[in-house]
Design brief:
Membrane topology (chain B): Multi-pass membrane protein
Transmembrane segments (chain B): 12-35, 47-65, 71-94, 115-136
Shape of chain A: globular
Family (chain B): Belongs to the TsuA/YedE (TC 9.B.102) family.
Order of helices and strands of chain B: HHHHHH
Strand content of chain B: under 5%
Radius of gyration of chain B: 17 Å
Protein name (chain B): YeeE/YedE family protein
Number of strands of chain B: 0
Structural class of chain A: mainly alpha
Radius of gyration of chain A: 17 Å
Shape of chain B: globular
InterPro entries (chain B): Sulf_transp_TsuA/YedE (IPR007272)
Oligomer: heterodimer
Number of helices of chain B: 6
Helix content of chain B: over 70%
Number of domains of chain B: 1
Number of strands of chain A: 0
Chain lengths: 138, 141
């Protein structure tokens, strides 16, 4: 059941990305181009996603545990550290260069563009490299 | 359908997916966290793989149902796609999340870390696009 529920969640997520326009880098870059022909679509995506999640989480957390696990695994870190700041900035630069954040990158694989496969493989390399940065430095 | 309406509906679906994953498995729907956990040798590979298969398959299912692809063509050349991928992977790993984990799930929880990360990556992405499009005149092809 865990597998089926995760698959359904992924399908819903991918359909949402597709409907939202996020599987088109031109739309994403159009939102990021505030000094050009600005395209506000991503604001609507964020508003719909954040509001739905905010309401839904509160409803879900009334229960004592998830359906198929022992506890809710929610990050409890609150510290603002250099890793968070530098990581977010580097991610933003990469997002601005090509117009792909991780979800749309995966969702775009079925489009058959070879450079999307290269981007996803490079992203995996980046995850691997990032995991090797010692916790105290950076 | 107006693109703004379809984007709002898409956003609601992303939110429903996040709520569903929390209700069923108690997990944050953060793509970078779910996928990078596979490389980190997390002991719970199955649900991560199942979720990612769903994300990859969804646009393809839409294509079968509607007969038109929702996937846009990349707008930068292969070397830039590779560089962008490394930056996105490294940055999301270091920063502990991406647009979904920080931007949607974290902001919905009003997490301080996620609010800051989201403000920073959106600002950095907008600044990058500004430099590329309006100062450099594009990256070429």
């Amino acid at each position: 059941m865990k597998m089926v529920t995760a698959l359904l969640a992924g399908l819903l997520f991918g359909l949402g990305l597709s409907l939202a326009g996020m599987t088109d880098p031109a739309v994403v870059l159009g939102f990021l181009d505030v000094a050009g022909a600005w395209n506000p679509r991503l604001l609507f995506v964020m508003a719909g996603a954040v509001l739905t999640t905010a309401i839904g989480y509160r409803w879900v957390w009334r229960g004592s545990r998830p359906w198929f696990d022992d506890s809710f695994r929610v990050p409890d870190a609150t510290r603002i550290d250099p890793r968070l700041v530098f990581g977010a900035l580097l991610f933003g630069v990469g997002w601005g260069v090509a117009g792909y954040c991780p979800g749309p990158a995966f969702a775009s694989l079925s489009g058959g563009y070879s450079s999307v496969f290269v981007l996803v493989a490079s992203m995996a390399l980046g995850w691997w490299l990032g995991a090797r940065v010692p916790a105290r430095s950076a | 359908m107006h693109p703004w309406i379809s984007s709002l509906m898409g956003g609601v679906m992303i939110g429903l997916s996040a709520v569903w994953l929390m209700a069923a498995l108690g997990r944050i729907a953060g793509i970078s966290g779910i996928a990078s956990g596979l490389l980190a040798g997390a002991g719970d590979r199955e649900w991560r793989i199942a979720f990612l298969i769903g994300v990859v398959a969804a646009p393809w299912l839409l294509l079968l149902l509607r007969g038109e692809s929702v996937i846009g063509a990349p707008v930068v050349s292969l070397p830039w796609m590779a560089a962008a991928g490394v930056l996105v992977g490294f940055g999301t790993r270091l920063g502990g999340g991406c647009t979904s984990g920080h931007g949607v799930c974290g902001v919905a929880r009003l997490s301080r870390r996620s609010l800051l990360a989201t403000a920073l990556f959106v600002a950095a992405a907008m600044a990058t696009v500004f430099v590329i499009r309006h100062l450099l005149g594009g990256l070429g092809t």
